[in-house]
Every structure is written in structure tokens, then in C-alpha cells.
Amino acid sequence: MKLFSSKKNRQRLLTAICTVFVAGMSLLFLFPILWMLSTSLKTDGQVMIMPPKWIPDPVLWSNYPQALRFMSPRVFLNTLYIALFSVIAHLISCTLVAFGFARIKIRGSGFLFILVLSGFMLPYQVSLIPQFILFSRWKMVDTYWPLLLPALGGAPFLIFLARQFFQSIPKEMDESARIDGCGYFHIYSRIILPMSKPVLGIIAIQTFMNQWNDFMRPLIFLNTASRYTVSITLQNFRADYGMTPWNLLMAASLMCLLPCILLFFAAQKYFIQGIVVTGVKG
């Protein structure tokens, strides 16, 4: 007990326990990705062997170019086009709405913000049927418009995050800008946005990942194979009667997952900083 009597030793013990816990949780969350990597390097016969083997023998790196034969490069370009457009649209729409709620005080703004937050309670699958009816009347089915236009309306969760971050910026800066003759748009574009890189990173990362991995909306609105996205094309690997080539499917899934992983690691500093700031500010 004398070993843990001092405050310094107790802090070391707490740090060691937290490190072991975080390492264990990291392995738990990495387990699906490690299993996908292991399966993607196996032969078709090794996938169903029980008990399963973690280390393939032999290691088949050729599964990756073979998996790419099922996926045209156009599929990645289609998904990238939708994802990048949605990122730009959300960055503009969400920050504009959040700026209005955070910096412009008018009668009824609190009630309007509650209406925006009520969008949390409505799953987007519920709105797919009326959206399909609307876009079909506009002759937009089997085009990218049903996947692009909703992004112009923003997202309730991202608007909430941006508003919380904007409120953490001192309002004295707005007053100084008004003295210099700046209007709301100049305050938004020249003061608020340059200081909001963390929350902009969150909006960009979450929007890109959601659009890149979206399956339901492209499945409903797209009918032509040349317009398919990554998530729909992965279904080409599925076959009936247990004939699905799981090794090729895992190889293709890892290649489709790679852009999201690279984007997160490239912007993780802004992502973590934005979560901390928006979580602390009430």
C-alpha cells in the first residue's frame, strides 16, 4: 500500500489503467477491420474454414486487382462527385443557418431553433417516400439531383454543432467589425468562418463519410448502372446459394473504406478540437 500512498504514484497507476483500457477498446473497434483485412487475403476456400485462421496461407494480394474488375473507376468518380458537392453545400448552408441563430437575435429565433433540432427525431428514411414522389414528378429520378439538392438544406445536427461553436467566439469582434462598417455577411465570411476551422472540419468529415457510405438513397433514385455509387456496386459481389466470393467482397470493401480513413487522419486535429469546443460550450 505504501507504493500508492503518494499522489504521483496514484497518478501513474491511473494513467496505466486508462492506457490499458483505451488500448483494449481500440482493439475491440479495430477487430472488424482486421478481420476484413485477413479475409481479403485468403483464398475462397479458406474463408469458411472452422476454426477461422487470422493469418492467411497463402497470402493473396491478387484479390485486390481482381476485386477492382467488378468495380469501374466511374463508380468511384460518381461517389466522389456526390460527396464533394454535398460537403460544399453543407459547409455553406449549415454555417449560414448557424450564424443566424448564434449572432442574429430576433423574436422567435429560439422557437425556430427548436424546430431545427426537432429534425433529430425524424429519421431520413421517413422522408424518402415523399421525396421520391416529388422528384418523380419533377422527372429527376435516375439523375443525381435527388442526391444533391437535399444537401442545400443543411442538416440539423451539423447546424447545432456550428451554432455551438459560433457562440464560443466573442461577440465583441462583431461589434468591432460593425464600427468599421461591416455587415452581417462580412462578419460571417471574414471573421466567423476563418476562426471556425475545427467545426468546418467536422461538417466536412461527417458529410463526406455519410455520402460516401450512403446506400438507401442511391438505391432508390438511381436505376442506370453507369450512375451507380460505391455502396450499390458492392452488391455485385453478392450471389445466391452461398456462392458469394467473400474474400473479393472484403477486398473491395477495404478499398472503398480507404478514402474515409485517409480523410479522417488528415483532418483529425480539427475534428477532435471541434468536438471539444462544441461540447464544452453550452
Account of the protein in words:
With about 280 residues, the protein is an all-alpha fold. It has helices at about 5-40, 65-70, 75-105, 110-115, 130-135, 145-150, 155-165, 170-180, 185-190, 195-215, 215-220, 230-235, 245-280. The chain is flat. The mean pLDDT is about 85.
Describe the secondary-structure layout.
Elements: H1 7-40, H2 63-68, H3 73-103, H4 109-117, H5 128-137, H6 145-148, H7 156-167, H8 172-179, H9 184-192, H10 197-213, H11 216-221, H12 230-233, H13 246-280
Q: β content, as a range?
A: under 5%
Span of the ends, CA to CA: 42 Å
Number of strands: 0
State the secondary-structure class. mainly alpha
Rg value: 24 Å
Low-confidence stretches: none
Quick structural summary:
The chain has helices spanning 7-40, 63-68, 73-103, 109-117, 128-137, 145-148, 156-167, 172-179, 184-192, 197-213, 216-221, 230-233, 246-280.
Sum up the structure in keywords.
single chain; 282 residues; mainly alpha; 13 helices; flat
